[in-house]
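fyi for ur records
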Amino acid sequence: MCLNYNPVRVYLACMFKYTEELIIFAYNADAARIAKGWTQAVFAYEVGVEPAYLNKILNARRQPGFDMIHRIAEALGVRAGDLLNDVPPEKDLLHFKELLSEKHLRNQERRNKEVGTGKHHQPKSAKTKPKEGLNANK
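which gave:
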């Protein structure tokens, strides 16, 4: 047995790798969506999920299960392995991480302002196909 074994350090290393893989998946799925010219609402319709749920996946806030990864890949017309394994250039990945951080901070600020105002977000349904061009590239 290794005397320097630290389970916390091993756990954190695994979580870092998991987070990186989640971000790579989100980057690749979002890049493929944009290449198709789809909004997130159209993409959600094609996958068959609520736009809010897909948004969380594309912003690396939710871990998609095996079935969801394949549904996303099928909707995009790509292999699931490509979404998981194609590591983007370091510069592009860093920029994507910065965008995710900025979105998260803006959402936190918005939620903090809305506390106590009674404003509630009403999720859009994925049951009806949204109009093309609506909220382009969001």
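The mean pLDDT is 80. thats all i got for now
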